[in-house]
């Protein structure tokens, strides 16, 4: 599994600030046939749908809910630093709203 992680076989994080961080497979449940496998980014600590249709058809219970955490505990040197920047969304509603709307009944 370590070689697959190093070769980006499980995919990369889609978030820009993660800079293509390799991801790990994770299941959302340990019960078979309840959900498909997802990918976990150890940098932003978020879960995403895999881009590959092949990976999207694998049962998540094969990897379980704890695989990424056990993997990173075993290979602690592979755990990345947190992202230095975080995305802060802008408030576009306040920028484009009309400050003094006149009621239509006047």
From TrEMBL:
Question: Which Gene3D superfamilies does this entry report, sorted A to Z?
Answer: 2.20.25.20
Pfam families hit by this protein? CK_II_beta
The signal peptide stretch is: none
Recorded GO molecular functions are: protein kinase regulator activity
* GO cellular component entries: cytoplasm; protein kinase CK2 complex
InterPro entries named in the record: Casein_kinase_II_beta-like, Casein_kinase_II_reg-sub
Q: Which domain of life is it from?
A: Eukaryota
Q: What does this protein do?
A: Plays a complex role in regulating the basal catalytic activity of the alpha subunit.
UniProt family annotation: Belongs to the casein kinase 2 subunit beta family.
Q: How does it assemble?
A: Tetramer of two alpha and two beta subunits.
User: What protein does this entry describe?
Assistant: Casein kinase II subunit beta
Q: What is the native source organism of this protein?
A: Ambrosia artemisiifolia
Lineage in the entry?
Eukaryota, Viridiplantae, Streptophyta, Embryophyta, Tracheophyta
